[in-house]
Amino acid sequence: MDNMMNTDSEELEELRSQFVTAISVNDWNHMRRTPPMLFTENGIAMLSSVLRSPKAIQVNISIMRIFTKLRSFLMLEKDLRERMTQLEIDTNKLFKIVFERLDEYETHLAPVKRQKKIGIKSE
Fold first, then answer.
1. 25 occurs within a structural domain
2. Rounded distance, CA 121 to CA 123, Å?
3. Which of 1, 8, 87, 120 is 20 to 30 A from 15, alpha carbon to alpha carbon?
């Protein structure tokens, strides 16, 4: 099915840890004959047309809002990652220029002459 999928043991373990349940996945699975199904965003939208109770419709609306927020969060994360990469590139370019200028400045400096030490010499 396009709108829902089966869970695997890794996903079940992640769900178990998110809900802070004490039962391990193996113990949890023996209580169920089939693993729970996961619905896609389109699957949730289709449920709205099948389940017509006011409570089911409100739950589906809430879930759709969560999908929308999740999608906008992922876009924001992608945008931030791109901006951080660009900042890193720009900073590296600036540091390269600074080090080149320091090297040029260092080559133009006259070598420092050693001065005689002033004071009493011990023999």
1. yes
2. 6
3. 1
